[in-house]
Amino acid sequence: MNIGIKIKKFRHERDLTQEQLAEYLNVSVPAVSQWESGKTVPDVSTILALANFFSVTLDELFDRAPMEKEKEMDRRPSLFLGIWIQPIMRCQKRCGR
Questions:
Q1: pTM for the complete prediction?
Q2: Cα distances (angstroms) measured from residue 43 to each of 9, 16, 18
Q3: What is the pLDDT of residues 29-78, one digit of tens each?
Q4: Does residue 7 contact residue 50 with C-beta atoms inside 8 Å?
Q5: Exposed/middle/buried for residue 35 (C-beta within 10 Å: 0-12, 13-18, 19+)
Q6: From CA 50, how far away is CA 6, in angstroms rounded?
Q7: Exposure on the CB side of residue 25, measured as CA atoms within 13 A
Q8: Which SS3 state, helix, strand or coil, does residue 61 take?
């Protein structure tokens, strides 16, 4: 699900029109319409304002599931360790250790 679909979902849950949301965010109605249709995405400052307005986290706004976050975190340590361990292992092989 893209961010535009989530914006529309949260807007409908609160019985808001695109005009009302646009007024709160100080953007044009066509901007909200383009986000919801997936033609454009809000800028970073607007994304933060959207999350605040809807009282949701950025993960919820971007529809990131908990499992996705855990998988991403699982990959980070191995990448970090790989950067440091691989050169050490190559050195040990060359040095005969």
A1: 0.65
A2: 19, 21, 17
A3: 999 999 999 999 999 989 999 999 999 999 898 887 765 555 555 555 54
A4: yes
A5: buried
A6: 11
A7: 29
A8: helix
Task: Name the token pair of 18.
Answer: 């695109």
Closest CA to 63 of 4, 21, 14, 12: 4
* Separation of alpha carbons 11 and 17, rounded Å: 7
Amino acid at 33: S
Cβ–Cβ < 8 Å for 19, 28: no
Neighbouring residues of 10: CB distance < 8 A, sequence distance ≥ 6 = 50, 54, 56, 61
On whether the CB atoms of residues 33 and 8 are closer than 8 A, the answer is no
Instruction: Please answer whether residues 17 and 25 qualify as being in contact, where contact means their C-beta atoms are separated by less than 8 angstroms.
Output: no
Tokens 């919801």 label which residue?
36
Residues in the chain: 97
For residue 94, pLDDT beyond 90: no
User: CA-to-CA distance for 92 and 17, rounded, in angstroms?
Assistant: 65
